[in-house]
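Human: Cast an eye over this sequence-structure pair and say how the chain folds.
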Amino acid sequence: MKVDGSCHCGAITFEADINPDEVRVCHCTDCQQLSGTAFRVTAPCQESLFLLLTGEPKIYVKVAESGRKRQQAFCADCGSPIYATSDEPPGSRRFGLRLGTLAQRRELTPKRQFWYRSVLPWLPSFPWIAENGTVFKQ
C-alpha cells in the first residue's frame, strides 16, 4: 500500500510502500516514554521502499536493555517522531514508520501487539487482537 506522511509542522515529508497487515502496537516502556503516551503504533517498511521528499530528520540513538541500538528519527523543528530503525549501515534496514505521521492512518488498523507484559493496566484491550498478538477474526 502506498502511503505518504509528514511531521506536524510539514518540514519533513515522505512516501513509502507498506504492508497494512504488518501494522502493530508496541507496549514496551521505551515506546511509552519516547511517544509520551501509553503505546506506539508503527507500520513496518523496507528502507528501500521509503522516500524522504523534504527535510532531514534528526536522529537520536536509543540503547535497549539488551544493548541493541535503535535510531529514532524525528523532526528537529516540531518534535514529531517519523520512524525508528536499527543502528546498522543503510541498505537493508526496516523502518518502523510512526502511524500518526501517515495521511492514511485511519485505514491502518493494527493487527499485532508486542511487549504486552508492559501494557498499562488502565488501557482498554483491543478486541480484535489477543494478548499474545493473534488477530481475532471480525
